[in-house]
Design a protein that fits this description.
74% of the residues lie in helices and 0% in strands. It has helices at residues 3-10, 28-42, 58-101, 103-111, 116-153, 161-187, 191-196. Helix 3 (58-101) runs antiparallel to helix 5, helix 3 (58-101) packs parallel to helix 6 (161-187) and helix 5 (116-153) packs antiparallel against helix 6.
Length: 198
């Protein structure tokens, strides 16, 4: 097929791109320079900054993809951080309500000999269990959504053991960090005041 017929077929009057293969990886930069020189001469352009074309290597494309992926990763990390913060505050509020509702129970336990550390460990454990349950639901939801999207886009969605361990670890850490304040508040209750609480 001639160039004229190709231009008519695609409705254009110029080449949209030319693919060139270098002899080896070491000659890519040299090939780029020679191609730029040839195109500048062909287009009768003396100032390279005014070029109406661009010469891009596979390495340049990979660099662009890496930059985009880094930006996406940063964006998703920001969203995940905000979600974790909101979730952590929610867990802390739930545990504070639980401490308030169980004040008499805490007072009774302390009156019967429970140590401050026992109360602290109890409420921290409850907080961790609460976040772990949320983490398990999150893993299941992520797996189902990933599988669904994978089938829709005809790609394989892979859930690795490392990602599951990471999710469980973050859930546990979230429960500990945001459960410390409610647990300390419960552990520091005066048993007499707690028993009198209505």
């Amino acid at each position: 097929i001639s160039d004229t017929k190709a231009f008519e077929l695609f409705g254009t009057e110029y080449y949209s791109g030319i693919t060139v293969q270098a002899f080896s990886e070491d000659t890519v930069d040299e090939a780029k320079e020679k191609i730029e020189e040839a195109l500048l001469k062909s287009h009768e352009i003396e100032d390279a900054s005014l070029a109406d074309f661009s010469v891009t290597s596979s390495e340049d494309l990979l660099s662009m993809v890496d930059t985009i992926m880094t930006m996406l990763t940063s964006f998703l990390t920001g969203i995940a951080s905000i979600s974790l913060l909101v979730g952590g505050i929610g867990i802390m509020n739930i545990m504070l309500v639980s401490v308030t509702e169980r004040t008499r129970e805490i007072g009774l336990r302390k009156a019967l000999g429970a140590k401050t550390s026992d109360i602290l460990i109890q409420f921290l454990t409850e907080s961790v269990v609460l976040t772990l349950i949320g983490g398990i639901f999150g893993i299941l939801a992520g797996y189902l959504i990933g599988t669904g999207v994978g089938r829709w886009l005809d790609i394989d969605a892979v859930v690795t053991i490392d990602s599951i361990i990471l999710a469980v670890g973050i859930s546990s850490l979230l429960g500990i960090v945001f459960g410390i304040y409610p647990a300390k508040r419960a552990a520091r209750l005066n048993p007499i005041d707690a028993l009198r609480y209505e």
